[in-house]
Design brief:
This is Glycosyltransferase RgtA/B/C/D-like domain-containing protein. Keywords: Membrane, Transmembrane, Transmembrane helix. It is a single chain. Helices cover 52% and strands 13% of the residues. By secondary structure, the protein is an alpha+beta fold. It has 3 domains: 380 residues, no CATH class; 48 residues, no CATH class; 128 residues, Galactose-binding domain-like (Jelly Rolls, Sandwich). The strands form 3 sheets. Strands 3, 4, 5, 7, 10 and 12 form a 6-stranded antiparallel beta sheet that branches. The protein has a 4-stranded antiparallel beta sheet with strand order 6-11-8-9, with no helix packed on it.
Length: 623
């Protein structure tokens, strides 16, 4: 029976398993003695440093796109639940990645830079694991093994590493470690190793959307192949049950992919179109900048390795069928199964995104890089055409250098606008309802959802999340009060022209609706004295074209209303000087159909005579 200490990972006899900690330490000491391994390690370090510098210079603490769904749980407004973890983002359902983002959001107060660095760390560990894997399979290091850090830490991963934390950076690290297990036949060593491997495979399934589902099934190939060898009943039962659970989970998630009608126009209209796009997508791990110049010649980077692997596997099958060879290398067939699953992912991209020329975009690199990884490792394991993996490494190095200029230019464009959003929100001198109109698209959300962004900005500010973490409210070093905000429906007085009405595009899902003309007196509590600008988010469904506002009985200020334009912020530019305490905001509703959604008082720096600011700042510094 095959169990602990009898895995025969590389085709030869093995003795008892060494103590895990001591064995790992000795293995790394042995690797580090080799000059080629140290050279590859240096490439890995430079790749990590480049990505870290890119995060530091062009990253942002603000969420991006789907990451805004993390604000409510981080603020404690929405509880962590299974349904929330299983909420899809387009066709992608990745509960484990969501859970990781939730935990990191709790630890780092939703600072997305923390998530970017953790994602980079996961990818770096994954790349290092594969470098060690290739060395272990070959029995010695090769400079060609720099292929792994050059691909996994390619700058063209910028959307996964720098822009978007809720992507597949963490999943990439998990996948690389799982690939190492399959390539070195780790699960064949003992039942305990098998359970650990199956758990890791299930984690890949739950962390990388539909692509992860395909990969997880492919990773089970080494377990299925191992069942053909002599093994204990417990090992075979565990392998069968575990592989079935992984496959069933993957199948259920694939069958449960939600319909996205807005993606119907993206799909290929013919088999030929889907096949062409699938071939192009299978090269996505090289990065768009070089591929735009090298296509179609770049297709050799995947067609040649797959052809050589196919010939080698076909020859082995013929020898096994004729009785000239035994089925004695589960690692080889396991990697072949995984390679097949990675090609299925490119086929899915070819069908689902055939009409959209985005398959070489940065975000697809994480989905296609397993193709190159599996092909490289399989060629090393099969010991065929050593020059081809080395050529793949040289090509990867060329692509890294080719991709850096466009990566820097693109990330700089993202960063400049997001940096402006960070500054405006952190200073707090612009109403957040105005900031939502201006920066919603900058932060990866369609402008039609700006009402959601108002609520999210408010939650972040109230709970000191992301850019508001540790914020000291000041203007050029002079402290000013905190901005104040109220949902209008929470201020509706009894007996006035306003009533609370549900509204799906209002902040909080409700607004204050005027049922007729009249004056509504809203009570606002102001904790600190200061000079405040008033902003009201409203819309008119009736004949109202202007609105009159008055604070504490002062002469009213009339403001125009753009009818039928949806909710828009209306700002009183002249600040109100308010003392601490309760103040009355009188709103004259000229007609029925006026909806009030969100009211803000935004502190402004006090106006000063020339030279007064410098004197006040100097006095403050002396104190």
């Amino acid at each position: 029976m095959m169990d602990r200490g009898q895995d025969d990972r590389f085709g030869g006899p093995v003795g008892p398993s060494p103590a895990p900690g001591r064995g790992v330490a000795r293995a790394w000491v042995s690797r580090l003695r080799e000059p080629d391994f140290r050279a590859v390690l240096l490439v890995w370090a430079f790749c990590c440093l480049g990505q870290a510098m890119l995060i530091r210079s062009h990253g942002s603490s603000l969420p991006w796109c789907d990451e805004w769904c993390l604000v409510a749980p981080a603020a404690g407004v929405e509880p962590l639940s299974i349904s929330w973890l299983l909420t899809p983002a387009n066709e992608h359902r990745a509960p484990l990645t969501r859970l990781a983002m939730y935990v990191l959001g709790e630890v780092g107060s939703l600072d997305m830079q923390v998530m970017h660095y953790v994602g980079l760390g996961s990818m770096a560990v994954g790349a290092l694991a594969l470098v060690a894997t290739a060395r272990d399979l070959r029995g010695k290091s090769s400079l060609g093994d720099a292929f792994f850090p050059l691909v996994i830490l390619n700058p063209w991963h910028f959307e996964t590493v720098v822009i978007y934390g809720y992507a597949y950076a963490i999943a990439t690290g998990l996948l690389c470690v799982a690939i190492r297990g399959a390539a070195t036949q780790r699960p064949l060593g003992s039942t305990r190793s098998l359970l650990a491997y199956l758990g890791l495979t299930l984690a890949v399934c739950l962390s990388a959307g539909p692509a992860g589902n395909f990969w997880a099934v492919g990773l089970c190939g080494v377990v299925v192949a191992g069942m053909a060898r002599r093994a204990s009943t417990a090992w075979k039962a565990t392998g069968l049950i575990g592989s079935t659970v992984v496959a069933a989970t993957a199948g259920a998630m694939i069958l449960g992919i939600p319909e996205c009608p807005w993606h119907d126009s993206f799909r290929s209209e013919s088999v030929a179109e889907a096949a062409t796009v699938a071939l192009k997508a299978s090269l996505g791990w090289l990065g768009r900048p070089p591929l735009q110049a090298l296509w179609p010649w770049a297709s050799a980077a995947i067609l040649v390795p797959i052809a050589l692997i196919g010939v080698g596997l076909g020859r082995d099958l013929v020898r096994i069928a004729s009785g000239k060879a035994k089925f004695d290398d589960p690692g080889r067939w396991g990697l072949a199964a995984f390679l097949g699953s990675t090609l299925l992912v490119s086929c899915a991209i070819g069908y689902g995104r055939g009409r959209v020329p985005s398959y070489w975009d940065s975000r697809y690199m994480a989905l296609t890089q397993p193709i190159g990884i599996a092909a490289y490792l399989l060629m090393v394991r099969m010991r065929i055409a050593p020059a081809v993996p080395q050529a793949m490494a040289i090509l990867a190095a060329v692509c890294v250098g080719w991709s850096w200029p466009e990566t820097i230019q693109t990330t700089r464009g993202y960063h400049e606008r997001r940096l402006e959003a960070e500054r405006v929100l952190r200073e707090g001198t612009m109403p957040i309802s105005v900031a939502a109109e201006e920066f919603t698209e900058t932060l990866g959300i369609p402008r039609s959802y700006s009402y959601q962004m108002v609520g999210r900005f408010l939650l972040m500010r109230e709970h000191d999340l992301s850019i508001y973490r540790g914020r000291a409210r000041s203007f050029h070093g002079i402290p000013i009060p905190q901005p104040l905000a109220w949902e209008a429906e929470s201020l509706v007085p009894a007996g006035g022209p306003l009533r609370v009405d549900e509204d799906p595009v209002a902040v909080g899902g409700a607004a204050a609706l005027a049922e007729g003309p009249g004056t509504a007196n809203l009570e606002l509590e102001v904790p600190d004295a200061g000079s405040y600008r008033l902003c009201i988010r409203l819309r008119s469904e009736g004949d109202a074209r202007k609105i009159a506002l008055s604070m504490d009985g002062a002469p009213p200020v009339e403001l125009p209303i753009e009818a039928g334009a949806g909710f828009l912020p209306v700002v009183v530019e002249t600040p109100f000087a308010l003392d601490p305490g309760r103040h009355t905001l009188a709103i004259e509703c000229p007609a029925a159909g006026l909806r009030l959604d969100f009211i803000e008082l935004v502190p402004q720096p006090e106006p000063m005579e020339p030279g007064a600011f410098a004197a006040r700042l100097r006095a403050r510094q002396l104190r």
